[in-house]
Design a protein that fits this description.
By secondary structure, the chain is an alpha+beta fold. It has a single domain, classed as HIT-like (HIT family, subunit A, 2-Layer Sandwich), CATH 3.30.428.10. 19% of the residues lie in helices and 21% in strands. Bound molecules: adenosine monophosphate (AMP). Adenosine monophosphate binds next to loops.
């Protein structure tokens, strides 16, 4: 499993920095965003250090499919109301112009009653 010693999300994955986890398996971790934009705001993060969505290859299709199919279940478990009245937003910021601040691929899942701080 590749890891970057200077990456804050690698440190969270390795337990060197605390986080509030919503999910963990052998290849993924989910944890609450420390500065939430919405009443519910967590991220799903591959354990392997992948800098951004721009680095994905066809070999990552199953990993990304797992993230996308886990998101609805975890959204409900963490307080989002059901579709269609409730729902959630999924965001993957990629690169400087995409607004990415942490360069370890992460999928934001946000929801809960409006208004939100951002988005
Ligand atoms: P992005 O702009 O998509 O790269 O978002 C990075 C996100 O990581 C931001 O929403 C930050 O609030 C969040 N973040 C940064 N450090 C931590 C941390 N130690 N624990 C949880 N979330 C964090």
């Amino acid at each position: 499993m590749s890891s970057d010693p200077n990456c804050i999300f690698c440190k969270i994955i390795e337990g060197k920095i605390p986080s509030r986890k919503v999910y963990e398996d052998d290849e993924l971790v989910g944890f609450h965003d420390v500065a939430p934009w919405a009443p519910v705001h967590f991220m799903l993060v591959p354990k392997r250090h992948i800098a951004s969505m721009a680095q994905l290859t066809a070999d990552d299709a199953a990993l990304m499919g797992k993230i996308m199919t886990l998101a609805p279940r975890l959204a409900i478990e963490n307080g989002c109301r059901p579709y269609p009245e409730g729902g959630f937003r999924v965001v993957v910021n990629t690169g400087a112009e995409g607004g990415q601040e942490v360069h370890h691929l992460h999928v934001h899942v946000m929801g809960g009653p409006r208004p939100w701080l951002k988005g």
